[in-house]
Write a structure and sequence with these properties.
The protein is an all-alpha fold. The chain is built from two helices and no strands.
Length: 82
Amino acid sequence: MTSRTLRILWPAFLVAGVLEMLVFAVVDPGDLTWFGGAPIDWSHHAIYTFTFLLFWGAIATAGAMTALLATEAEPPGVAEAD
């Protein structure tokens, strides 16, 4: 993995952990339903894992898009110095 990838994934990991703690301090995983319908019949560990990975992926995607937009393109016709 490159340094840029790790600079995106590590903060996203930390923020996803904090976000999950904040969400599940308020929401009981046993009370979750599928869009207001049937209850989600997953174990609490499965719900915690899925939501953590969902948060991590969303935050990492936002960080990657920010890093992509922050890179400056070289002007046309400028050769890269070796």
